[in-house]
Input
Amino acid sequence: MVLQNQVALVTGGARGIGKGVASRLAAEGADLVLVDIDAATAGQTAAALGGPGRHIGLACDVSNAEQVSSVVDQVIDKYGRLDILINNAGITRDNLIMRMKPEDWDLVLRVNLTGSFNFIRAVSRQMMKQRSGRIVNVSSVVGLMGNAGQANYSASKAGLIGLTKSAAKEFASRGICVNAVAPGFIETEMTANLPEEVKAGWNKNIPLGRCGQIADVAAAIFFLAGPDSSYLTGQVIQVDGGMVM
Output
């Protein structure tokens, strides 16, 4: 229970990696605020974490700075503090560059990159006041190596790494650590329905020979959010089975 009496906010927390991260942080004692575009699912996920009244789900379009500021204000009003921010919300709109619609480029950058900036900006005042905080941004290995058909997604995740390093330098003197994780191929609801031959193709490029699990990503994020990472900031931890070395 090393996170007892700490408040953690997870964007995109209703399902997938965000839900897994929320479960791990709650198990370690944190009070959770799950932010998602789907208010109903966020509320259900928060309720399933147990501890009546401790965990809440809030609706928010992360690309909307006013909504983000309102959510952070609600968190401070309810809990009086905010210790951990996990920027996990993200979307894809895959296509080849020559076929990609400008609106799909803009949307992915707004949600994946601007959304993270909005939350970092909104929580920074409270964390600086506390002179402590942990911010973990969920990037991707494609932000390091690129991927055909994902120019918008890759650009957003690469931008997130630059944002991580810049924020780390700005906030370090106030005791706030800012890091990122870069997951590789992770088994989620979205990938579960892919053909086995596609998964086998992925595994050929992974030295450990298997896709990752949500729990693998959650464990890395918990480490960066917890007390054992107090001397790490501006780092990118790749959770990819050795795919990108």
About this structure: The mean pLDDT is 95. The domain at 7-238 is CATH 3.40.50.720 (Rossmann fold).
